[in-house]
Amino acid sequence: MIEFQQVTKRYDNDHTALRQVNFDLARGEMAFLTGHSGAGKSTLLKLIMLMERPSAGRVIVGGQVLNTLPRRQIPYLRRHIGVVFQNHQLLFDRTVFDNVAMPLQVTGVPARDIGRRVRAALDKVGLLDKEKMNPIQLSGGEQQRVGIARAVVNKPPVLLADEPTGNLDPELSADIMHLFEQFSQVGVTVLIASHDIALITNMGRRTLTLDQGRLVAGGKPLSVGVPV
């Protein structure tokens, strides 16, 4: 579902954020992405979302090579990738329902279908009874659940999470991870960037470890003949 083939990313200031990174994640696989600050985690996620393009190598998502994807097709790609942020990025002038409905409204889903799909997403994260509330009335864990509901309301095959439990205590963090596990069990490919080594260890999942832009654990050997 996600494949990196000898991916290198250099920026204009001559900083190399990723160096010949190789890995693939299967459909329904849940994995962690870790490494020190500046190791390249955010760059790797940006390449999957096509916020950046690789300098060399190939990034493939759902069989689509992203390197040469026309700009006009980027919004379509992003509809198939759910993203969960550490700080939720919720709008506090809108209700929980309206926050979750936003991706559907942007993509032109008929109004008659939005209510059903939003409530299904809220039900999955245990917040069906909170739909009329303002996010500011919710706890930090509940706000993160709203962010997850918004990320999955389009039923994306890929779910990315950038430090999703960074502001939560261990018990709430475990609850959030259980939600991610449930999504992977129904075929969603889940990649979670995290610094929480204890949590990662307890989950017992595959861990991709970056060190100064190189994938030093959890990947695969360099392929022969891959174009760079």
From TrEMBL:
Entry keywords, A to Z: ATP-binding, Cell cycle, Cell division, Cell membrane, Membrane, Nucleotide-binding
Pfam family, one: ABC_tran
GO molecular function: ATP binding; ATP hydrolysis activity; transmembrane transporter activity
Subunit structure: Homodimer. Forms a membrane-associated complex with FtsX.
Domain annotation ABC transporter: ranges: 2-228
Family matches, as InterPro entries: AAA+_ATPase, ABC_transporter-like_ATP-bd, ABC_transporter-like_CS, ABC_transpr_LolD-like, Cell_div_FtsE, P-loop_NTPase
Protein name: Cell division ATP-binding protein FtsE
Membrane disposition: Peripheral membrane protein
Localization annotation: Cell inner membrane; Cell membrane
Family: Belongs to the ABC transporter superfamily.
Chain's role: Part of the ABC transporter FtsEX involved in cellular division. Important for assembly or stability of the septal ring.
Transmembrane regions listed in the UniProt entry: none
Lineage top rank: taxon: Bacteria
Gene Ontology terms: biological process: cell division
GO cellular component terms, A-Z: plasma membrane
